[in-house]
């Protein structure tokens, strides 16, 4: 069906997109700026003109740097329910994304790849890379002075090239498809100004996963607990029997959290308590903890335990504790309860591409989970990118091609 011509188009797009500097800035995003960095408009503008030349309609870049476009349904298929494809255009700020010089390793044979920075990609240490070496895949890395930006420009290139397939093959029928490329995903603000006035779809897919086969339909339930201890301050020289130290209560509380349920002692489907900050004085001390759990009932138990431990610490030192829980995001799994077809269609598209779906729980939140909360169920598809957020980030062209084929299968009727 699709080969060679589209594959080289996919590669060409990917190489071009990663060279556009789109690093986002969480401080700026935290101050309410979107996009957090102006240069994200550079890639948005490129995508806007490409979507137009591919024949999409209503193509536009919003003031907040979201790129939107709509592929009109083939004649006679206007009644098919539309869906939206999403990917993000920014890259993470921890590693430079400026002047990316992508390196292509054709028919990669498994030798160590030594990057300019001295970093080494070795199949001995990287099982996914070893697998790609066995298949002699084409590997793309940075030169080691920057990240690569496969997260998520691989996803962007895959969506764009899948659209190119339908633009070049009018005999391939499809319903209406919407696309939305978003800024600032890496800052956690990627969905803050998502243009819901434009997006009419009732379900969507993000293309922002990793290894071939990954299919993500679950993420953590996430709450932030702020525990405030109140003590009594007096001169330390005459404090006996009077002073109540909020710092002591706070540290006692943190020590009593279950040690085997922390980020550093859990993986897979296990949840945790993560103390994030502790600050204060004798009179008042505040502890911020992140609570994470895939199960909503277990999350209620975690909240209850935080309250119990906080009150116990306060009581044993004669002070007071107040607990406030704030929801950060929810497991998107529940969002699919009424729409199992959203996942079933995707699984069928994987299988048609010869890809075995591997359901992977996301130990964090995603743009997809935020959209799901907004009532638009949104699973996440692999991109073929690996070692995200690092200088040793790499992508496999063959896996990217598979991701694009999954998208084509998903769209084609
Ligand atoms: Zn990403």
TrEMBL record:
Q: Which top EC class applies here?
A: hydrolase
Q: Which domain of life is it from?
A: Bacteria
Q: Which residues form the active site?
A: 90, 185 (proton acceptor)
List the InterPro entries: ArgE/DapE_CS (IPR001261), Bact_exopeptidase_dim_dom (IPR036264), Peptidase_M20 (IPR002933), Peptidase_M20_dimer (IPR011650), Peptidase_M20B (IPR010161)
Share an example GO biological-process annotation for this protein. Answer: proteolysis
SUPFAM superfamilies, alphabetized: Bacterial exopeptidase dimerisation domain, Zn-dependent exopeptidases
Q: Name one GO molecular function term.
A: metallopeptidase activity
**Keyword field:** Aminopeptidase, Hydrolase, Metal-binding, Metalloprotease, Protease, Zinc
Gene3D superfamilies hit by this protein: 3.30.70.360, Zn peptidases
What protein does this entry describe? Answer: Peptidase T
């Amino acid at each position: 069906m699709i080969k060679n011509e589209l594959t080289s188009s996919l590669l060409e797009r990917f190489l071009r997109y990663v060279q556009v500097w789109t690093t986002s800035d969480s401080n700026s995003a935290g101050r309410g700026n979107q996009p957090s960095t102006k240069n994200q408009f550079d890639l948005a503008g490129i995508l806007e003109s490409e979507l137009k030349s591919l024949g999409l309609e209503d193509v536009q870049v919003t003031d907040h740097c979201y790129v939107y476009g709509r592929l009109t349904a083939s004649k006679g298929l206007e009644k098919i329910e539309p869906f939206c494809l999403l990917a993000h255009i920014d890259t993470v700020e921890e590693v430079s994304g400026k002047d990316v010089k992508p390196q292509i390793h054709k028919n990669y044979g498994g030798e160590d790849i030594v990057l300019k920075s001295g970093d080494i990609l070795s199949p001995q240490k990287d099982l996914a890379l070893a697998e790609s070496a066995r298949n002699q895949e084409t590997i793309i890395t940075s030169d080691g002075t920057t990240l690569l930006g496969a997260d998520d420009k691989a996803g962007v290139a895959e969506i764009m090239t899948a659209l190119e397939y339908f633009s070049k093959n009018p005999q391939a029928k499809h319903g209406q498809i919407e696309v939305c490329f978003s800024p600032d995903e890496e800052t956690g603000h990627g969905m803050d100004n998502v243009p819901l006035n434009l997006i009419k779809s009732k379900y969507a897919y993000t293309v922002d996963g990793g290894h071939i086969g990954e299919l993500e339909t679950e993420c953590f339930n996430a709450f932030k607990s702020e525990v405030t201890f109140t003590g009594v301050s007096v001169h330390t020289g005459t404090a006996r029997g009077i002073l109540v130290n909020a710092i002591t209560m706070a540290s006692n509380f943190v020590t009593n959290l279950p040690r085997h349920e922390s980020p550093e002692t859990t993986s897979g489907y296990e949840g945790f308590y993560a103390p994030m900050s502790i600050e204060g004085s004798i009179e008042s001390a505040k502890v911020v903890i992140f609570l994470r759990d895939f199960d909503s009932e277990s999350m209620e138990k975690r909240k209850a335990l935080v309250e119990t431990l906080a009150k116990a610490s306060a009581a044993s030192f004669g002070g007071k504790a107040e607990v406030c829980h704030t929801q950060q995001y929810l497991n998107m799994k529940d969002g699919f309860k009424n729409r199992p077809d959203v996942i079933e269609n995707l699984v069928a598209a994987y299988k048609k591409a010869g890809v075995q779906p591997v359901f992977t729980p996301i130990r964090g939140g995603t743009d997809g989970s935020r959209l799901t909360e907004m009532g638009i169920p949104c699973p996440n598809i692999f991109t073929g990118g690996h070692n995200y957020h690092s200088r040793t980030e790499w992508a496999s062209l063959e896996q990217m091609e598979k991701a694009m084929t999954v998208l084509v299968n998903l769209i084609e009727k």
